[in-house]
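To illustrate the input format used throughout this study, we show a single complete record. The first block contains the structure-token representation of the backbone; no residue identities are included at this stage. The design step must infer an amino acid for every position from geometry alone.
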């Protein structure tokens, strides 16, 4: 029984080296992928200068455990 478990876990470890989420060679998004990401019409517009207000108050926060979140600045300084 223990040998079977070790063999099974070893197989998962072996195959995880061959799997990947993205091929990295093609940066275009297919129509199917776009429809999955956006339901209906994608009406986003590119921000010309993200260093200007209000866009400069939006950032990325990394927790101590390494998780990433979107952060919004509420005030410049705390009393």
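Output of the design step:
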């Amino acid at each position: 029984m223990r040998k079977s478990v070790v063999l099974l876990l070893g197989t998962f470890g072996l195959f995880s080296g061959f799997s990947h989420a993205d091929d990295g060679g093609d940066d275009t998004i297919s129509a199917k992928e776009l429809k999955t990401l956006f339901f209906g019409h994608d009406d986003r517009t590119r921000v010309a200068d993200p260093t200007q207000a209000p866009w400069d108050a939006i950032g990325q926060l990394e927790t101590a455990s390494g998780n990433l979140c979107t952060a919004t600045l509420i005030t410049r300084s705390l009393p």
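Structural context for interpreting the output: The first helix runs from residue 2 to 16. The chain has a mean pLDDT of 76.
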